[in-house]
Amino acid sequence: MVSTSIAPAQTLLHERYQVVRILEDGPWSIAWLAEDTQLPSRRQCIIRQVKTLTTNEQIQKQLCDRIQTEIAAWQRLGGIHGQIPWVSSFTDPQGQIFLIEEWISGITLSQKLQESGPLDEANVRDILASLLSLVDYLHQNQMVHCALEPNNILLRADDNKPVLQYGGMLNQVITNALLENNIRPIAWMPSSGYLPHEQIVLDQHYYSSNLYSLGLIGIYLLTGQDPYNLINLSTGTCEWRPLATKTDFAFAAILNKAIAKVPGERFMTAQQMLTALAAPKQFEQDSLKDHIVLMRQMGVYLNSCLLRLNPAEQTISSYSG
Question: What is d(CA 321, CA 315) in angstroms, rounded to the nearest whole number?
């Protein structure tokens, strides 16, 4: 990996943004808290510099183009929806990309659990409902978030609402771009147990992929355990119920449907999952009816198979004469 460092804090970035302090120095980017000196309020923001990750100029340009495309897509929504921060970007004379995003005071879901431990069902339902409304807005605008996980969701200090952060999205875009060019930096590749199989292995994103991530986030908030500690590798199932015995059966059924391994077995839309959260008992009853219908259909199918394997013997007419 090739890394480049940024100008010292006492200089301005893009002749405008004054660095206050460093926030993180990750494998893909380095982030600072900065002040916008061209605004009277000196509004604070986050500046992320995307590092130079390869000496291959063609791949690096492809990587930069993909990041710029992703940023442009998010600019359409950032700052419009109350839980999506505004975002912008600029490049320096050397072609380095800098992502500018709204600074929001708060703590991530991961930090929340580190401070207070697992949350009760009521709090988890409230957080999921708010996130589902946000994800539904994204889906209505034909966008699928590629990195929904606790580290990328901030609980805003002002109203405790969950807000998206762009760092995780940037990491996932870079990961996918590198893998497409057969660059596999395993030692420093960020991995997330909150992404479904089709997203990790096939780089395919469905609306239900986001619902899978939200289901696992709900389980994390209830148990305090990351998916890596809960998923049985031999069966692919998430064995979380023994750690959340106080969770209502109907709510547990909603989460289990969201994290189904096969996309077609999950909720198809955020609205469907929101409806289930609003009336979990009704969801439980409807699921039971669907299960009974499915079992009857399977019974009919198995009977037809048995008949084909063992057809009734034809009656032979006898003649006596």
Answer: 19
64 Cβ contact partners less than 8 Å away, ≥ 6 residues apart: 50, 91, 95, 97
Neighbouring C-alpha atoms within 13 Å toward the C-beta of 60: 16
Whether residue 168 is found in the same domain as residue 285: yes
316 exposed, middle or buried (CB, 10 Å; 0-12, 13-18, 19+)?
A: exposed
**Closest to 45 (Cα-Cα) out of 12, 17, 11:** 17
Whether residue 309 is contained in a domain is answered as no
Q: Using CA atoms, how far apart are residues 305 and 119, in angstroms rounded to an integer? A: 49
Q: What is the percentage of the chain residues whose pLDDT exceeds 70?
A: 84
Q: Any idea what the CATH number is for the domain that residue 198 is in? A: 1.10.510.10
pLDDT tens digit sequence for 204-248: 889 999 999 999 999 999 999 999 999 988 888 899 999 999 999
Measured between alpha carbons, how far is 270 from 273 in angstroms, rounded to an integer? 5
Cβ 136 vs Cβ 171: under 8 Å: no
Angle subtended at Cα 117 by Cα 114 and Cα 118, rounded to the nearest 5 degrees:
125
CA distance 3 to 145: 27
- With respect to residue 313, please indicate whether it lies within any of the assigned structural domains: no
> Contact 266/276 with Cβ under 8 angstroms?
no
Q: Give me the mean pLDDT over the 279-285 stretch.
A: 91
Residue 115 makes CB contacts below 8 A (sequence gap 6+) with: 107
**Do residues 90 and 99 touch, judged by C-beta distance below 8 A?**
no
